[in-house]
Write a sequence for this structure.
C-alpha cells in the first residue's frame, strides 16, 4: 500500500463501524456523557474537561456533558481511580462495553493519561508542540470505539524535561502539551505552593534543592528572614566569623562558601555541619507534599574541603585522581540520617557530577535515595552509546554501566537542546538511546533534557538563543514524550503520520527527502557531535553538492506546500527553510570563512585501495571541500571533497568529485608519467615545511594513471612517489583512493606531530565540451604557491578530556599558518591590537615590561590568508612536541631580530621553570623568506611548555607567517 493511501486509511479507520462498536460522537453530535465521582480530584476533573472539549472539537460539534451521574439516553464514560494493586504506577485501564466506557487510573494522573489515550487513539489528534498551532487533527463527525479492554503503563518512570532560560517552572502551554503527551512534571516547591490551584490538575511532583550545599548550611529553605540577598549575606558573614570551621580549608586557609553557584563545599566531615544541614534538609522535605523530591547536589564547584578529616574519607584510588565520590555519598548518608529525624518519609535525588561522577568505593546503595541524576551532558549523540570506537561514548558507556550496576534508579541528564540550537535531526538517535537503556541498563528509568519552551519569556541576552529552539527539533521533543511512555511504538509509522500532519503536501513534495539527506549528512560526518564535542555544524555540510541539493529539496517542498489547504503547512515549510539557512548554511559559511588547519587521523582499521572509500576510517576522517576557481572568481560548478588518514608507513587520500558527465571525461594517458595534466585529473601538491619552496606533484587522471615529480622551481619527473591509486565511477561522481609511502614524502615515518603542507587541484576536462572545462583549487586560487598550501596536522587518535569529556584538539602544534582566528574579547591592557580578530591558539603575553604591539593582517589579494606583524611583546603557543630534537621553519619579512624561546612549567602549570632561548632569527628583507631552524627540546617530557616569539628590541618590525614546529 502506498504511503498516501496508508495515511488516508489511518485517518478513516474508525469510519468502518461494526455491530459491536460504540459511539461517543455521532454525526457531529454528542451521544455520550462523562461521569465523575463527586469527590473527584483535580486531575480527574481536568481529564473530564479535556475529554469533553476535544471530543466536541474533533467531531466538529457539541461537547459531551460532565456530571456526577449518567445522563439518560447518553452513553456513559466513567472516570475513576482504582485500588487494583495489579496496576502499575501512573498507568491507566480502558474498558469499552456496550453499556459503558470506563477510564481507570492507578492514580488520578493515570485517569488524565487515559483520557488523552482515547483522544489520540480514536480521535486521531496529535499535540506536536506547545500552543494552538501545534494541535493537529482531521475533523471526524463519528468517534467510534470497539468493545475491548486494554491497559497502558509508562515505559520509563521519569518522564520530564527542564525548561531553561525562562525560569524553572514550565510555562502554561508547555505544561498542557507535556501532560497531553504523558509527561509527569517536577516543578519547584515554591512555584507549586504559589500556584497550587492552577497546577494541581497536572499532579506535579514538588522539587527543591539542586546546587544546595550552601543553602542548607545557611537555612536557605526555612528562615524567611534570610530570603533577601542582603540579610542572607549578613547571616553568612556572621556565621563565617563565628564558625570558620564550618567552611572549607583551601590551601591551608578557611574560605567563605556562600553561593550554590560557584563556592567551594562546606567542611563535610564537621559534625555540626552535618547536623545543621541534615536538619535543614529534613525541614525542606517536610514542608513539601508527599510527592516530592529534594535534589541533593553540591555547590557548582569542584573544590572540596582539604582538611585532614575530610581527606581521610577519600579512598587512595580516588585521591590520586582528585575524585570525591566516596566523600559525597558518605556526606549524603549522614545528612539523610539527620533529615529523617525531622521528615521520616523524605525522598532524595542523589547526584553524579563533576569530580564525584563515578559510584563510591565501599558504600552500598542507599535505598532512601529514590533516584540518581547522571551527568551525560557531554556524551556523543552521533555515535551509539556502546560504540567502542567513539572516544567520548567509550567513557560514557562505562560510566552509565557502573551506575546501572550500583543498584539505584537513575535518570540521565542529556543536552538535546544542542540539537535545538543547531537544527540537528536527532530523533532516531534518541530512539536508539532509549531502547539501549531499556534493554542493557534497566536501572536507567528515564532521560532528562533541557529545552527553551516556545511560550517562555526571554530576556534580551537569551532571546536569540531560545527563539525557535523547540521548532527546530519539534520531532525530537514529540518523540521524546511518546517513547518515554511507549518505547514499543511503531516509530516509522508514527514518524510518517506526524510529519504528514505538520508538512502536509510539503512532506512528500520534498521535506521527507530533505530530512533523510540532513540525517545522512549528520550521521556521516566525522568526529563526535553533541554538547562540548568538536565537530562544528558547518563541517557536516562540507560535502560536495550537499548544500545545493538540500536547498533544492526545500524549494520543491515549498512549492508543494503552496497547494495545501491548511495555511500552517506553507508556514511550517518556510520556517524550516529559514531555520536551515540560519543554522547549517550560516555554520557552513562561518566554517569556510575561518579556515582551519586540516587534521589527518591515524587508521583504526585497514583501508583497501579499491576506490570506494567505504571503510570506517574514511567515515571517521574529516572532509574538506571549499575548492575555488583558479582562473575566475567564485566557486566551481561542481565541488570536490578530500579526506586524509595515515599510518606509520603511508598517507591515505580519498577524493570525491561531483561529475554529472562521468562517461564523457577526457582521458588519453594509459601509462605512468605520461602527460596526465592534459587529461581530466586531480593534482596533489605536497610540501614538507622544512624544505622551503619545493614540493612534490602527483597528478592522477580519472582512470587512475599517475604522473609524479618534484617542482623546485621547475617540474622534474626524477621523483617517484610510489603512489598506489584506484578510481571508481558512480552515476554522478567519481572517486580516487590513493596511498603514498611516508618514506617518499619525508624520508621516514609518520607520527602525531608531523606537519605537511598540501594543495589539491582538480582539472575538469570533458570530451568535446570546452565550455565545461574548469580548474579549481583547495588553496584559494594559486595552485602552485607553497606559501598558501593548507597545513595538514597528523593528529593522534580522537580522544576526550578526562575531566570534562570534551573532545581534545590533538594537534601537537596549532595554527602555525595563523589562518585560524578568534574574535577577541579581552586581552592585556598593555597590548595595542588592530581590528577584532586574533590568531587562534596564540596567546598575548601578560608581561607589561615588554609592551605589546601587533597587527593581524591578510595578505594582499588573499582575504583568508593571514599573517602577524609584531613590533613589541611576546606571542606564545603551546608546545606539545615531545621529541628530543625539534625542527622548525617560518616565513619572515621586515627588519630586526626575532627571538625564539621555550617557556617551561611543571606538569600541572603550578611551578615555573623559567625559559630557555633556542634561536635568534636575523631578518632584513622586504620580501618573504623562509627561515629553517632546529633546537634541542629543553627539560623533561612531562613538562608543560610554550614556544615564545618576540622582537629583540624596540623599533624592530617583523612580519611572521607559517611558523611550524615539526616532530622528527
Amino acid at each position: 500500500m502506498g504511503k498516501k493511501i496508508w495515511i488516508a486509511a489511518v485517518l478513516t479507520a474508525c469510519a468502518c463501524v461494526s455491530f459491536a462498536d460504540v459511539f461517543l460522537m455521532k454525526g457531529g453530535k454528542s451521544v455520550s456523557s462523562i461521569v465523575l465521582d463527586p469527590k473527584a480530584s483535580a486531575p480527574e476533573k481536568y481529564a473530564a474537561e479535556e475529554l469533553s472539549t476535544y471530543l466536541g472539537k474533533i467531531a466538529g460539534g457539541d461537547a459531551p456533558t460532565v456530571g456526577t451521574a449518567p445522563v439518560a439516553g447518553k452513553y456513559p464514560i466513567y472516570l475513576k481511580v482504582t485500588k487494583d494493586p495489579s496496576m502499575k504506577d501512573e498507568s491507566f485501564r480502558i474498558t469499552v462495553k456496550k453499556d459503558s466506557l470506563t477510564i481507570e487510573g492507578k492514580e488520578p494522573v493515570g485517569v488524565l493519561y487515559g483520557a488523552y489515550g482515547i483522544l489520540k487513539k480514536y480521535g486521531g489528534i496529535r499535540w506536536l508542540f506547545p500552543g494552538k498551532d501545534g494541535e493537529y487533527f482531521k475533523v471526524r463527525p463519528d468517534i467510534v470505539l470497539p468493545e475491548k479492554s486494554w491497559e497502558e503503563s509508562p515505559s520509563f518512570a521519569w518522564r520530564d524535561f527542564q525548561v531553561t532560560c525562562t525560569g524553572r517552572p514550565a510555562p502554561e502551554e508547555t505544561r498542557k502539551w507535556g501532560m497531553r503527551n504523558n509527561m509527569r512534571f517536577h516543578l519547584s516547591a515554591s512555584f507549586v505552593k504559589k500556584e497550587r490551584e492552577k497546577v494541581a490538575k497536572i499532579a506535579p511532583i514538588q522539587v527543591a534543592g539542586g546546587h544546595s550545599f550552601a543553602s542548607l548550611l545557611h537555612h536557605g529553605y526555612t528562615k524567611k528572614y534570610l530570603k533577601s540577598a542582603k540579610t542572607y549575606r549578613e547571616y553568612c558573614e556572621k556565621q563565617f566569623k563565628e564558625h570558620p570551621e564550618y567552611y572549607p580549608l583551601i590551601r591551608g586557609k578557611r574560605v567563605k562558601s556562600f553561593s550554590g553557584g560557584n563556592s567551594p563545599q562546606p567542611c563535610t566531615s564537621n559534625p555540626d555541619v552535618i547536623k545543621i544541614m541534615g536538619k535543614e534538609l529534613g525541614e525542606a522535605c517536610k514542608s513539601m507534599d508527599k510527592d516530592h523530591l529534594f535534589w541533593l547536589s553540591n555547590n557548582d564547584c569542584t573544590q572540596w574541603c582539604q582538611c585532614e578529616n575530610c581527606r581521610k574519607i577519600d579512598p587512595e584510588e580516588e585521591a590520586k585522581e582528585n575524585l570525591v565520590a566516596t566523600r559525597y555519598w558518605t556526606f549524603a548518608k549522614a545528612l539523610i540520617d539527620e533529615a529523617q529525624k525531622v521528615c521520616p518519609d523524605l525522598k532524595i535525588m542523589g547526584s553524579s557530577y563533576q569530580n564525584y561522577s563515578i559510584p563510591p568505593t565501599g558504600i552500598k546503595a542507599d535505598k532512601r535515595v529514590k533516584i540518581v541524576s547522571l551527568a551525560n551532558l557531554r556524551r556523543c549523540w552521533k555515535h551509539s552509546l556502546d560504540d567502542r570506537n567513539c572516544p567520548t561514548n567509550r567513557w560514557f558507556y562505562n560510566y552509565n554501566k557502573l551506575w546501572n550496576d550500583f543498584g539505584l534508579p537513575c535518570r540521565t541528564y542529556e543536552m538535546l537542546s544542542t540539537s535545538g540550537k543547531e537544527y540537528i535531526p536527532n530523533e532516531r538517535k534518541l530512539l536508539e538511546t532509549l531502547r539501549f537503556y531499556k534493554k542493557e541498563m534497566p536501572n536507567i528509568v528515564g532521560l532528562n533534557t533541557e529545552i527553551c519552551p516556545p511560550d517562555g519569556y526571554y530576556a534580551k541576552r537569551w532571546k536569540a538563543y531560545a527563539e525557535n529552539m523547540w521548532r527546530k527539533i519539534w520531532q525530537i521533543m514529540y518523540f521524546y514524550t511518546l517513547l518515554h511512555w511507549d518505547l514499543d511504538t511503531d516509530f516509522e509509522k508514527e514518524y510518517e503520520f506526524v510529519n504528514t500532519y505538520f508538512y502536509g503536501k510539503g512532506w512528500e513534495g520534498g521535506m521527507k527527502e530533505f530530512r533523510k539527506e540532513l540525517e545522512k549528512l549528520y550521521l556521516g560526518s566525522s568526529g563526535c557531535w553533541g554538547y562540548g564535542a568538536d565537530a562544528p555544524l558547518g563541517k557536516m555540510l562540507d560535502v560536495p553538492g550537499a548544500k545545493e541539493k538540500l536547498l533544492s529539496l526545500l524549494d520543491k517542498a515549498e512549492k508543494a506546500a503552496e497547494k495545501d489547504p491548511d495555511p500552517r503547512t506553507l508556514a511550517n515549510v518556510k520556517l524550516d527553510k529559514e531555520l536551515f539557512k540560519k543554522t547549517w548554511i550560516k555554520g557552513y559559511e562561518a566554517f569556510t570563512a575561518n579556515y582551519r588547519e586540516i587534521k589527518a587521523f591515524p587508521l583504526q582499521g585497514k583501508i583497501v585501495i579499491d576506490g570506494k572509500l567505504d571503510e570506517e576510517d574514511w567515515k571517521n576522517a574529516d572532509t574538506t571541500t571549499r575548492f575555488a576557481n583558479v582562473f575566475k572568481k567564485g566557486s566551481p560548478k561542481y565541488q570536490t571533497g578530500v579526506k586524509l588518514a595515515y599510518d606509520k608507513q603511508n598517507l591515505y587520500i580519498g577524493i570525491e568529485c561531483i561529475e554529472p558527465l562521468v562517461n564523457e571525461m577526457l582521458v588519453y594517458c594509459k601509462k605512468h608519467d605520461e602527460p596526465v595534466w592534459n587529461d581530466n585529473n586531480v593534482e596533489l601538491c605536497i610540501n614538507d615545511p622544512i624544505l622551503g619552496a619545493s614540493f612534490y606533484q602527483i597528478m592522477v587522471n580519472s582512470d587512475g594513471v599517475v604522473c609524479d615529480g618534484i617542482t623546485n622551481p621547475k617540474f622534474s619527473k626524477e621523483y617517484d612517489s610510489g603512489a598506489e591509486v584506484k578510481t571508481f565511477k558512480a552515476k554522478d561522481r567519481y572517486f580516487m583512493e590513493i596511498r603514498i609511502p611516508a618514506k617518499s614524502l619525508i624520508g621516514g615515518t609518520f607520527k602525531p606531530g608531523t606537519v605537511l603542507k598540501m594543495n589539491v587541484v582538480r582539472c575538469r576536462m570533458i570530451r568535446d565540451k570546452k565550455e565545461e572545462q574548469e580548474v579549481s583549487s583547495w588553496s584559494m586560487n594559486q595552485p602552485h604557491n607553497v606559501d598558501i598550501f593548507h597545513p595538514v596536522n597528523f593528529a593522534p587518535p580522537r580522544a576526550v578530556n578526562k575531566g570534562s569529556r570534551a573532545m581534545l584538539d590533538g594537534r601537537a602544534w596549532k595554527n602555525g599558518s595563523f589562518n585560524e582566528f578568534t574574535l577577541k574579547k579581552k586581552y592585556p591592557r598593555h597590548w595595542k591590537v588592530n581590528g577584532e580578530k586574533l590568531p587562534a591558539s596564540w596567546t598575548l603575553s601578560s608581561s607589561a615590561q615588554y609592551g605589546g604591539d601587533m597587527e593581524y593582517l591578510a595578505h594582499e589579494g588573499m582575504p583568508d590568508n593571514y599573517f602577524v606583524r609584531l613590533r613589541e611583546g611576546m606571542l606564545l603557543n603551546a608546545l606539545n612536541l615531545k621529541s628530543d630534537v625539534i625542527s622548525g621553519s617560518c616565513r619572515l619579512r621586515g627588519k630586526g631580530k626575532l627571538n625564539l624561546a621555550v617557556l617551561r612549567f611543571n606538569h600541572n602549570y603550578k611551578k615555573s621553570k623559567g625559559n630557555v632561548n633556542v634561536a635568534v632569527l636575523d631578518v632584513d628583507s622586504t620580501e618573504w623568506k623562509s627561515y629553517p631552524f632546529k633546537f634541542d627540546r629543553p627539560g623533561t617530557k612531562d613538562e608543560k611548555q610554550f614556544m615564545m616569539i618576540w622582537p629583540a628590541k624596540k623599533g624592530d618590525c617583523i612580519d611572521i607567517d607559517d611558523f611550524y614546529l615539526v616532530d622528527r
User: Anything to note?
Assistant: Residues 567-593 form the longest helix (27 residues). The longest strand covers residues 912-936. Confidence is low (pLDDT under 50) at residues 1-18. The chain is about 30% helix and 30% strand.
